[in-house]
Amino acid sequence: MTVQLYCFGESGHSYKVALALNLLGADWTPVHVDFFKGATRTPEFRKLNEMGECPVLVDGDTVTSQSGVILFDLVAQTGKLGGQTEDDKREALRWVLWDNHKMSGQIGTLRFLMNFLPEDKRDPAVINWLAGRCKAALTTLNAHLDGRDWMVGRGVTLADLSCCSYLFYPESFTFDRADWPNIDRWLSNIAALPGWKHPYDLMQRAFPV
Ligand SMILES: N[C@@H](CCC(=O)N[C@@H](CS)C(=O)NCC(=O)O)C(=O)O
Questions:
Q1: Beta strands 28-32 and 3-7: pairing type?
Q2: How far apart are CA 146 and CA 205, in angstroms?
Q3: Atom 10 in ligand 1: which residue has the minimum CA distance?
Q4: For residues 64-91, average pLDDT
Q5: Which ligand 1 atom is the nearest neighbour of the CA of 70?
Q6: Is-cis flag, bond preceding 118, omega within 30?
Q7: In the prediction, which pLDDT does 137 show?
Q8: Confidence tier at 96 by pLDDT (50, 70, 90)
Q9: How far apart are CA 8 and CA 56, in angstroms?
Q10: Mutation test residue for ligand 1: of 8, 16, 42, 53, the one with most atoms within 8 Å of CB
Q11: Which residue, by CA, sits nearest to atom 12 of ligand 1?
C-alpha cells in the first residue's frame, strides 16, 4: 500500500524522510502542505499532527510525526539504514538527537530567516547570532567526518539522512560546501547512493523558480 508523506519541498525535515523512502525503494506519495500559507496551523492539520509540523507519514491507520521517529520506524520495518551493530544503532540515535537540536533545528531556522521571511522582517542581529550557532554545529559535523565516509559505522544510516538534509538546499544560509571539506566529501557519498534525489525533485516546492 502506498504511504503518504505530508511535506513540502523547502522542508529539510521532510526531506530526511522523503530521501529515506526513496533510498529504500518504498511505494510512497508526497502530499503537499502549503506551509507558507499557514496550512500547518489549521485545525485540519492539527488533527493530523497536534505539533503542527511536517513531515507526517500516514501508513494506513498509523500516523507518525517527527522525522527521527519516522526514520527509526522505517529501519524497524525494513532492517535497512539502521547500522550493523547495536552500538551503531545507539550511535545513530545520538546523532539524530543532536541533529534535531543543533543542526537542522538551527540551520532550518536560519535558512527560513534569510530566504523565506519577508525582507522587512529580517533582523540582522538575530541572523548573525544564529549563523554563529550554525557555524559551531558545522564545525562539530566536519570534525566528526574527518577520516569517515559515514556518520556511523561503515555504511549509510539514518544518522546521515538526518544530518545532511538542509545541506543539499541551494538557498544562501552562510553554508558553502567548499569551506567544509569533510562535509563536502560526505555529501558527495550520499548523493552517489542509488535512489538519491535532490529535495526539490522529491517534493513539491512552494517557491518554484
Ligand atoms: N523535529 C521535527 C521538526 C519539524 C519541523 O520543524 N517542521 C517544520 C517544517 S521544516 C514545520 O512544519 N514547522 C511548522 C511551524 O513551525 O509552524 C522533525 O524532525 O520532524
A1: parallel
A2: 33
A3: 11
A4: 97
A5: 20
A6: no
A7: 98
A8: very high
A9: 11
A10: 53
A11: 53
Among all chains, which residue has been given the C-alpha cell 547512493?
193
Strand (E) or helix (H) holding 30: strand 28-32
> Burial, 162: exposed, middle or buried (Cβ in 10 Å; 0-12, 13-18, 19+)?
buried
Name, in order, each residue with C-beta under 8 angstroms of 48's C-beta and a sequence gap of 6 or more.
Answer: 6, 56, 58, 63
Locate 79 and state its grid cell: 532492517
**1: pLDDT strictly greater than 80:** no
Distance of alpha carbon 177 from alpha carbon 136, whole angstroms: 15
Average pLDDT estimate for 61-71: 98
Burial of 128 (0-12, 13-18, 19+ CB in 10 A): exposed
Report how far apart the first and last C-alpha atoms of the chain are (Å, whole number).
33
Query: Which residue's CA is minimally distant from atom 6 of ligand 1?
Result: 53
- Residues near 148 by Cβ (< 8 Å), separated by ≥ 6? 182, 186
Q: Is the CB of 11 under 6 A from ligand 1?
A: yes
